[in-house]
Amino acid sequence: MTAVAAEAVAGVLAGDLPAKPSARRLFGLYLLLGFSAGLPFYMFNAVLTLRLSRHGVDIVIIGFFAWIALLPTFKFAWAPLIERYDVPGFARFWGRRRGWIMLSQLGIFLSMIAMAFTSSDKSLPLTALFAVLLAFWTTTLEVAADGWRIELAPTQAEQAPIVAANLWGYRSAMVAAGSGAILVAAWADWTWAYLVIALAAFLPFPILAAMRPEREASAGRTQALVTGIITSLLVIFAAALVTALLGWALLSAAQGAGLSAKTNVTPIVLAIALLPFVALALALPRIRRLPADALSNMSTFAAPYVELFWRYGTPVLAVLAFVSLYRMGDVLTLTLSHPLWNDRGYSLHQIGVADGVVALSASMLGVALGGFLSTRMSLGWTLGIGAVTAAAGNWIYVWLWHSAPSAFVLYTSVAVDQFGNGYAGAVFVVYLSMLVSPKYPGAQYALLSGFAFLLPRLLAGASGSMQTEIGYDGFFLLSGALSFAAIFLLPIIVRVRARAAP
Q1: Residue 273 confidence (pLDDT)
Q2: In the prediction, which pLDDT does 13 show?
Q3: How many helices (H) and strands (E) does the chain have?
Q4: Do 498 and 312 form a contact (C-beta atoms < 8 A)?
Q5: DSSP secondary structure letters along 389-431
Q6: For an engineered disulfide with 424, which of 95, 314, 390, 496 has Cβ 3.0 to 4.6 Å away?
Q7: Which residues form a coiled coil (predicted)?
Q8: Which residue would you say has higher pLDDT here, 90 or 74?
Q9: How many angstroms separate the CA atoms of 280 and 295, rounded?
Q10: pLDDT band at 402; cut points 50, 70, 90
Q11: Quick one: DSSP state of residue 453?
Q12: In terms of Cα–Cα distance, which of 198, 174, 48 is closest to 109?
């Protein structure tokens, strides 16, 4: 971490956070928030797929677990609630955004503890339940943090360094979670691995609790903290109960429909993926004809999304197609890269090192370059470079699969993959942030970022079925080609212009 970053984080740790932080302290704040969100993400995604693979779970079932990562795709469903309602206790002292972040961190901590004590994976439905809860609270944290980021830094020039800081923190945490958890599992077991990361994920909570109030508080710190924790525990319990009931209903429906590990789900997934585009294409003409004042009379839930489509009209279909393809390779690689390494014979220690120093260094370099170029070049050029680097990060695994296992092959492949995805991730976040309206930053960013991962994560759930049909080499050739295909939409999306917001 640079001296500037260290000083910025020190300012945040000291609680010196005014309503409008300086650029340096904002940088430090989003390093911490990115770290807070990145730790749990790997634990219900890449680390979980490796854990299941080591326990001998079928590759098709492991692919199904990738559908847990679909949950962030639908964060638009509860994002308006986060923008409108406060968390009792927390919000009275720390404000709405930080209140939701603190609630989310409690949910993340408890979900990961539950995953630790069910780490034998003897009951896969139970494993899935706690992984879904971890994904839900991680996503809620991201919604609150993203909305706050866009409010505090509304322009492209302001966004680029903050996005870089957030992704540095996020990817550092992903690497810390991946490498740390895997190395702990190698030395002890998976229970200790999840316990260690749970404790690390909870560290930002006391830091936020020690910060100054967002405004003149109507309650003391201790009273707000106690009230907020009690409320949060009730909300977390209710969320767990609802998730368990929904999960039971979905599993029963799937079994009733005859779905199993032997079912070829790829055609079904592709058909489902087309539904949002069809529905939006049918609704757009009517939305476009709405008078501007009609938006002010809409419900809290509908207004942010209708406003987005009202501003962009029919060209929004091209934008959504572009964002659906752009991160395709990153998502698909994350799903099967760890099972690939495991099947190729690499040890937990080797995988832990690859997910540690190698991945961190390469991804930080990619994020830094992406953030820097976003302040110097047009988004069209930076996005185009990102499509190429992301595709290369997928294709490199074809070489790994056909090469004799060695540290050089593994670490080189991971470095190329992480650099490409770090760069593409940075410029992509800047691009999405420039599409939203300042009136609805959190909800609209949640919709766009969620939609961006809908098709990739749907396909990720079918990745196990795809791998059994075309092998690892065919899978990674295809995923890289899909990422590269986004470049053909660039001439269209760079010309998209929004009409004036109402």
Answers
A1: 63
A2: 46
A3: 24, 0
A4: yes
A5: HHHHHHHHHHHHHHSPP-HHHHHHHHHHHHHHHHHHHHHHHHH
A6: 390
A7: none
A8: 90
A9: 17
A10: very high
A11: T
A12: 198
- Chain-centre distance for alpha carbon 353: 23
Give the CATH number of domain 3-493; options: 3.10.450.50, 1.20.1260.10, 3.40.50.300, 1.20.1250.20.
1.20.1250.20
pLDDT at 398: 94
Place of tokens 């004809």: 289
Q: Is the pTM of this model over 0.85?
A: no
Predicted pLDDT at 4: 47
| Mean pLDDT of the 82-106 span | 86
Tell me what the mean pLDDT of segment 307-322 comes to. Answer: 86
pLDDT of 105: 93
Distance, in Å, from the CA atom of 369 to the CA atom of 424, rounded to the nearest integer, reads: 10
Query: 200 in the Ramachandran plot: left (φ > 0), alpha (ψ -120 to 50) or beta?
Result: alpha
Q: How many residues in the chain? A: 502
Tokens of residue 84, six digits: 């409108």
> Within 10 Å of residue 191's Cβ, how many Cβ atoms?
16
Provide the token pair at 301: 């839930």
- Region 127-147: mean pLDDT is 90
The sign of the dihedral angle between the CA atoms of 280, 133, 102, 9 is: negative
Cβ–Cβ < 8 Å for 224, 94: yes
Q: 379-402 vs 407-435: helix axis angle to the nearest 10? A: 150
Rounded CA gap, 441 and 433, in Å?
A: 8
Rounded CA-CA distance 100/97 in Å is: 5
Determine the pLDDT at residue 270: 64
